Amino acid sequence: MSLLATQPVYADGIHLPGTPIWLDPKRPQSISFVSNADRIAPLYYRKSLASAETAALVQAISRGERKFHPLTPPYGQGFTLGNIRAELLPSGLGMGASQLRLETEGFITLYSRDISLKGGTFFEGAAHTAAHRLILGTDGAIPSSETLTREERTARLTEQLRSLVDLGHSIVLKVPPVGVAQDVFSVLESAEISHRVGPIIHRVNKALNALRIPVGLPRTTGMAKSGEVLLWSASSCHEPVGEMDSILWLHANKGMDWRETPEGKVLRWTPLSTREELLDFTKRVSPDEVITVGEQKEEVALFLKGHGWKTSPLVTKPQLPLQI
Predict the structure, then answer these.
(1) Cα dihedral sign for 64, 69, 74, 76?
(2) Contact of 315 with 7, CB cutoff 8 Å
(3) Whole-model pTM?
(4) Is 222 exposed, middle or buried (0-12, 13-18, 19+ CB in 10 A)?
(5) Is the torsion defined by CA of 241, 265, 61, 195 positive or negative?
(6) Mean pLDDT in residue range 118-147
(7) Domains in the chain, ordered, with CATH?
(8) Which range is most confident: 77-86, 172-181, 214-223, 263-272?
(9) 322 pLDDT above the threshold of 50
(10) pLDDT, position 119
(11) How far apart are CA 128 and CA 130, in angstroms?
């Protein structure tokens, strides 16, 4: 039996037993696959695997302070990890976000942590390939009936920002620095709403432009100014200076589309797939088994099972000993 046919387990990351491979681990392991820059662990990795874009973005976000120098094979170009044949595929989120295809002894596992069939402003939707087992991410996978379309989200955000800018407010818009920030920046440009970005997003955009992803290079500042929108990294440990009349948050993977919180208003702004789109993706992969991971793993497993797929949520195990 293929080593990949053994059931994966979660222990500070997804481990494929019998192999040295860990998927998005939270601490150093033998071989760590990092699916996108937002999933980088706080610790360094000994041996790691990621797209070239993800490697560049991690360095941009950390100002080069992270010890992250992964193997960066091009998309669609197979390579080997011992006796396992591997290949990176785009996940549809762009900005280096990747899936990992693994094959040994005729058994194929596809790890698809963050999937978007729609794609975004600068990238195409997720690639797919046939697999015996699909490990499927479920963050943000709410029913399509509970989501806004991209056009509706854009109109709602633009209306909200215009009303505040017209009042002369200084607006801090806190966003994930990779993917969402670039998408929203293009919306602000199109709507001709005055804006600047914080230093982390500026470094990320500079790295993306160097990778020939034409996201533009907006003005940078650390100060919130009246009558302007300041795009600020939600992952930053620093706050902008100046008076902040309004703080809005754009979350990449939360369930509700628009709500009030003690920290301000929150708009769900994500290209992540709905449950119905994950079902469509599953049909394209046509696996014998689906293992769901992430915040909606129980709900999506039941949803897919109701459509005839063999599914189970990923099993969580106690922490395993540190792999050296």
Answers:
(1) negative
(2) yes
(3) 0.84
(4) middle
(5) negative
(6) 84
(7) 3-141+272-316 (3.60.15.10), 146-268 (3.40.50)
(8) 77-86
(9) no
(10) 75
(11) 7
